[in-house]
Design brief:
The complex is a heterodimer. Chain A is an alpha+beta fold. Chain A contains 19 helices and 29 strands. Chain A has an 8-stranded mixed sheet with strand order 3-5-1-12-9-10-11-20, sandwiched between helices. Chain B contains 18 helices and 20 strands. In chain B, strands 2-1-5-3-4 form a 5-stranded mixed sheet. Chain B has a 5-stranded antiparallel sheet with strand order 10-11-16-12-13. Classes of the chains: A alpha+beta, B alpha+beta. At the A-B interface, helix 1, helix 3, strand 27, strand 28 and helix 17 of A face helix 2, helix 3, helix 4, helix 5 and helix 18 of B.
Chain lengths: 780, 479
């Protein structure tokens, strides 16, 4: 047994490495760069490994008259072909309401690309080839593909919901000025670089291990248990890392895990389900497209008096998470602005498309972009710079500070944040420079826009706002950390490890984070809603503090002193002036039978929301930020280039500035992609045409602005969050809207800023040229 | 039998289906899973590997997309994957820089970026930001927004580059020389055949013997048949080893570019003659695609959306076709018969493409319209060759891709310009005439209306650029 050092006096202690606030490297960075980081598909396969691929529908809506799978069954390498009838338990895995069968039920086809049957074969390629051999006859029915058409027919997946304050109609009628309009906002493909994948291994006693690329391994376990008809404790779901998630691996990972599990259980063989990029793009949900309609009344200065808005969210064919997504769009239809009298209706439109799902921002961006569009329309109407209209309508401090869902906006940083960014980006001078440039440049026009974001933090489904953690200290002082969150690249494990390092005052290299598993921390929530570090950081802190309290109590007893004399600093445990290394103290505690392991738990305080009255405090706090984008638009072609972006973003007291900046930049570029080049295109039969990287264009490296300044506004969060940090995952995505607004600003220059162009999102070059042409024709 | 160098050893492959991609061989046969599949279509770069090839007494490193590269094309080359960079337990300087500058988040695209950066580091000293972007434009990242990756690519130059590959270079050269690349190579497996002849006579004979064979050059299009359409190609004939198709012959008036010459190998010549054409080269696919893709292949498949044909047609390039012992030469515009139908007879193949050099008095302009500036397929791609003399259009050839089933000339538009005064009124007429030339389709890339409108506006841009050169007309040129 190791010898334990005595208490001794040290001259000084160094700060630990990897404490909160340090720009610690991502815990897997060295594995990412060397190719050693293992993703689900990288796990060594078994000699009897099977691969499952789904055969999919080639119509969007209709009934299957016959399904001849004979050729599939006899194809090379095929071991089995299953349909819904082969599923031992529940076929429908709809996460909240039914509507998501893992294989088509009752011959009822609801979208093009829907899984009808599943082939298990000895290789992925053989399974793919076999799946194409099915002969299927359909009775086709007319598909509904447009959310406005669905709304007109009240073809909904869930009933509409409204937010109301005062009498918007009367306020608009009485307002000095009014305008109305519509905005179509496209959906978005997640395009995580790693496609959906789950690998299922049957073990013993009916236990199934599921290695899954999922933001919600607990829910995967529930779905698999339901599909197999076994208790949840028979399913172990493990998730080490995802190759990107962005919301697309929240509910959408389930179907593939379930198909693999059904075949694994049936054949008692390991089965892997991995989606090809096309199958992934056609067969899994995306960001909801929206079609939004508004009427607003405002005064001659451009201040809002009343807003009426109808948000038609395109749910696709099933509810999935649409209720919460459309709700969040409604919660963010104010963005940073006081709407005054307001009436918002959110429709959950059912279309015959793959069921749309969570995507970073979760509906919020669709509300935000609409009110941003309205701000621009008002600015053109009253002849002001849109920034001045935005500032005029911001939530006040101490007044005009209650949202349309009756939550008070506290600790409002935006007025200060915007002023700082306006100055640091030199907005006013650049506005003048741009006007001068545009005056002498007949073809290329520059545009500029400053857009804020205020984003509510908390799951609006209240019970999800909880998390657990598990911390062990081993006898050599090394620490094992496990928590409810999943790592998808956002650096969550790094941040949570920093929290534990800070609590025990040890170097972060002492802490090993392990894969998220439902048999370590059960009943976990999805890693979503930007909540990962808030919830899991607090839960891990709670676990660490439980152990720390035991250690302090033990040290006080052991060294015959008081608890206030014991503290942890610089990798040592101090008792008064003297100290010993943390490692030795851990051994000492173990030998003295102190429990060195603890769970931790956290639930978000203060939140409540009454859906009946559409009022409450759905959000613990708000995250804020703003971006200034400058673009150059070619008025002959609609092409454009982003020239410069300045961002100031509020992350509270940052847990890790490098990771937070990485989140902000990445979200911004992803948001920019959503409103510029990323266009989902379906044909009239409901078939997705943008089904690969060749036809669906996410930003490439040359789309990154040549000048890209990102700064953190590091006011500690006034709420008691983990080290007073703030959530960062989603809010900056909406800063990408500033590129869209800047493009519209450049086009508006053609009317001497009197008209706001009709440019929807995404503003592809085609959409921009359409806006230019309409505006020019209206001028004539 | 196929031989290539992997991790310092000569790796031999026999009895393998030649439809096997480098990526699937790495992941499924060798269980080397550091290289990732992102799209299996050459569009995302997650699968990027580096290929070392003999270049005199040295090694030339190029990065390629392993997901659409067929394994047998590695014969006689060195394959370097992400696993090979770490040496003696130490990260390679490229990897160190990526860690240091927080260039990875989810990490899935990272191995591909590392390999592209490795090739960049090997091939370029002190690159500009534009060069970095060009070399990495084929690698998509969905997490970072790229800024930290650009930083890493800049900072990796701070470390010296005397890595294990440099240290072993002479040994590698000797090993590669020991693999006889002058001999014809073949591979068979599962009833599928692969041949890699070394001269066009042998190629001709093979094509006579196997008229249904698929000709493989860069494979950046053919590879998709295998990975996206799940076909197994029965007979594949690789032209990359055909020595007389890998050469460029210069005359006083032209460059004759062998059909197996890659874009990367000829872009510098194109740039001297037609800077606009070279710019289109650099927006065509990605560096990984251009390192293997060929002008011959871009013409060969008679796709309506290839980016070089509009230029080749406008420049009146010649296509050299061979069958057996006979050769014929046709103008580029005659090669394209119908949607993906070429003027090729059975067993006939493209041997070379001859591009005339720039002639004095002529202006050549070329523009590409796509949703994303880099690595995207054109909604419209227009090439304009004009001679303006005494204020009149003395000669004109205009060609568009993306507007019809084939790339083709805009005959009515040309007529409206020919002999007319070079002014806005003429351009207005020519823009109207363009609508008579094409009836484009609406598809995933653009609507028919936009294609026509923007194509007419490209003519407007061409006019402005020649008529008023001080007017800014291209967002891609603004700095």
């Amino acid at each position: 047994m190791r010898k334990i050092a005595d208490l001794s006096t040290v001259k000084s202690v160094e700060n630990i490495k990897g404490k909160t606030g340090d720009s610690e490297k991502h815990e897997s960075a060295h594995l990412h760069v060397s190719g050693e980081a293992l993703y689900v598909d990288d796990r060594l396969e078994f000699p009897n490994q099977l691969h499952v691929v789904a055969g999919t529908s080639t119509i969007a809506h209709g009934r299957i008259k016959s399904m001849d799978l004979a050729a599939v069954r006899t194809a090379e390498g095929v071991v089995d072909v299953i349909t819904a009838a082969d599923v031992p338990g529940q076929v429908d895995i709809g996460p909240v309401w039914p509507g998501d069968p893992i294989l088509v039920l009752d011959n009822d086809v609801q979208f093009y690309g829907q899984a009808l049957f599943a082939v298990a074969a000895t290789s992925h390629r053989l399974a793919q080839q076999a799946a194409k051999l099915a002969k299927i006859e359909y009775e086709e029915l007319e598909p509904i593909l447009d959310p406005d058409v669905a709304a007109a027919q009240e073809h909904f997946v869930r009933p509409p919901h409204s937010h109301r304050r005062g009498d918007a109609q009367a306020a608009i009628a009485a307002a000095p000025r009014t305008l109305e309009g519509s905005l179509r906002v496209g959906g978005q493909e997640h395009y995580y670089l790693e496609g959906q994948v789950s690998s299922v291994v049957p073990t013993e006693d009916g236990i199934i291990e599921v290695f899954t690329s999922s933001q919600n391994p607990s829910e995967i376990a529930i779905m698999v248990a339901e599909v197999l008809g076994v208790p949840e404790n028979k399913v172990v779901a493990e998730m080490r890392r995802m190759g990107g998630g962005f919301g697309g691996k929240e509910t959408q990972a389930g179907q593939w895990a379930c198909l693999a599990a059904v075949l694994a259980m049936k054949h008692n063989r390991p089965v892997k389900a991995r989606l090809s990029r096309r199958d992934d793009m056609c067969g899994t949900g995306k960001r909801h497209p929206f079609s939004n309609h508004y009427r607003v009344g405002f005064d001659d200065e451009g201040q809002l008096r009343g807003v009426q808005m109808t948000l038609n969210g395109d749910a696709g064919c099933s509810p999935d998470l649409t209720d919460a997504i459309v709700d969040r769009a409604m919660f963010h239809s104010d963005n940073a602005y006081y709407l005054d009298q307001a009436e918002l209706v959110g429709n959950r439109c059912k279309t015959h498309k793959v069921s749309n799902t969570a995507f970073r921002g979760f509906g919020g961006p669709k509300g935000v972009i609409t009110i941003e569009c309205i701000m621009e329309e008002i600015a053109r109407n009253v002849g002001k710079d849109p920034l001045d209209v935005r500032k005029l309508n911001l939530y006040g401090i101490g007044e005009r500070n209650v949202t349309h869902y009756h939550q008070t906006v506290e600790n409002n940083l935006l007025p200060e944040l915007i002023d700082r960014l306006e100055a640091s980006s030199n907005y006013r001078q650049r506005r003048e420079d741009i006007k001068a440039f545009n005056a002498q440049s007949p073809v290329l026009k520059k545009g500029l826009s400053l857009n804020p974001v205020k984003f509510g933090i908390s799951f609006t489904v209240q019970h999800l706002n909880q998390a657990g953690a598990l911390v062990h200290i081993y006898t050599d002082g090394s620490i094992h950390l496990n928590h409810a969150g999943t790592e998808m690249g956002q650096g969550l494990h790094t941040k949570v490890a920093q929290v534990v390092a800070e609590e025990f005052q040890v170097n972060i290299s002492k802490i090993q984070v392990s894969a998220t598993r439902n048999d370590k921390v059960p009943n976990t929530s999805p890693t979503a809603a930007s909540s990962g570090a808030d919830l899991n950081g607090k839960a891990a802190q709670n676990a660490a503090r439980t152990i720390k309290e035991r250690l302090i109590k033990f040290a006080a007893e052991h060294y015959k002193t008081t608890e206030d004399q014991v503290n942890f600093r610089g990798g040592r445990v101090f008792v008064g002036e003297k100290s010993l290394p943390f490692d030795d103290f851990a051994m000492l505690a173990y030998q003295n039978r102190v429990q060195l392991s603890s769970t931790g738990y956290y639930r978000t305080p203060k939140i409540h929301y009454d859906r009946e009255t559409a009022s409450g405090r759905p959000f613990f706090y708000f995250s804020n930020g703003a971006a200034v984008s400058e673009v150059l638009v070619d008025t002959l072609t609609g092409e454009y280039k982003v020239l410069r972006v300045d961002i100031l973003h509020d992350v509270g007291r940052s847990l890790n500035p490098a990771i937070d900046i990485g989140q902000i930049e990445g979200a911004f570029i992803q948001g920019m992609g959503w409103v510029t080049t990323e266009e989902l295109v379906w044909d009239k039969n409901g078939r997705l045409l943008s089904d690969g990287a060749a036809t669906y264009k996410i930003p490439a490296i040359s789309d990154t602005p040549p000048e890209f300044h990102v700064e953190l506004m590091s006011h500690p969060n006034a709420e008691d969050t983990i080290y007073n940090s703030k959530a960062v995952g989603e809010p900056p995505l909406m800063l990408g809207i500033s590129v869209w607004s800047a493009i519209r600003d450049a086009v508006s220059s053609l009317s001497d800023y009197r008209v706001s162009p009709n440019i929807n999102a995404p503003a592809t070059p085609e959409e921009v040229l359409k806006g230019i042409t309409e505006l020019q024709q209206a001028q004539v | 039998m196929i031989k290539f160098l992997l991790n310092g050893d000569i790796h031999t492959v026999e009895n393998l289906n030649p439809n096997t991609t480098v990526l699937s061989y790495l992941r499924e046969n060798l269980h080397k899973t550091g290289t990732k599949e992102g799209c299996a279509a050459g569009d995302c770069g997650a699968c990027t590997v580096v290929v070392g090839e003999l270049d005199g007494e040295g090694i030339r490193y190029t990065h390629i997309m392993s997901c659409i590269a067929l394994l047998p094309t590695l014969h006689g080359k060195q394959l370097i994957t992400v696993e090979d960079l770490k040496h003696d337990g130490q990260l390679h300087p490229v990897q160190e820089a990526m860690v240091e500058y927080h260039g990875s988040q989810c990490g899935f695209c990272t191995p591909g970026f590392i390999m592209s950066m490795f090739a960049l580091r090997k091939n370029h000293s002190a690159p500009t930001r534009q060069r970095i972007e060009e070399e990495l434009a084929g690698n998509l990242c969905r997490c970072t927004g790229y800024r930290p990756i650009i930083d890493a690519a800049v900072q990796m130059y701070n470390a010296p580059m005397d890595d294990q590959f440099t240290a072993r270079e002479s040994e590698t050269v000797a090993q590669l020389k020991s693999i006889n690349t002058q001999a014809d190579v073949s591979l068979e497996g599962n009833g599928y055949r692969y041949f890699a002849p070394t001269n066009s006579k042998q190629l001709s004979e093979l094509l006579l013997q196997y008229p249904d064979a698929h000709l493989l050059a860069g494979g950046t299009d053919l590879g998709l048949e295998i990975t996206q359409f799940l076909r197994e190609l029965e007979t594949i004939i690789y032209v990359g080893n055909v020595a007389d198709m890998c050469t460029i012959e210069e005359s006083d008036t032209s460059y004759k570019i062998g059909a197996a010459v890659t874009y990367t190998e000829c872009v510098h010549l194109i740039e001297q003659e037609y800077p606009d054409f070279a710019e289109i080269f650099e927006r065509l696919g990605s560096t990984q695609v251009r390192n293997v893709g060929t002008v011959g292949g871009n013409v060969g498949n008679a796709s309506p959306i290839g980016d070089t044909p509009p230029a080749l047609i406008a420049l009146n390039a010649k296509v050299y076709l061979r069958k057996g012992d006979s050769e014929r030469v046709i103008p580029a515009e005659d090669y394209f018969v119908d949607y993906k139908v070429a003027a090729l007879q059975e067993s006939e193949f493209i041997h070379a493409i001859e591009i005339p050099k720039a002639q004095p008095g002529y202006d050549f302009r070329m523009y590409k319209i796509s949703k994303r500036l880099d690595d995207d397929i054109s909604a419209s791609c227009g090439a304009f060759l004009l001679k303006i003399e005494d204020g009149r259009v003395a000669d004109v050839r205009i060609s568009f891709g993306g507007l019809a089933g084939i790339p083709k000339r805009a005959g009515n538009c040309e007529k409206a310009l020919a002999g007319q005064p070079w002014n806005q009124a003429t351009i207005d007429q020519a823009k109207l005439a363009l609508a008579q030339d094409f009836t484009p389709l609406t598809d995933v890339r653009a609507s028919a209306a936009y294609r026509l409108q923007v194509s007419a506006n490209l003519l407007q841009r061409c006019f402005l650029e020649i008529d008023q050169p001080t007017v800014l007309t291209r967002v891609t040129h603004y700095a």
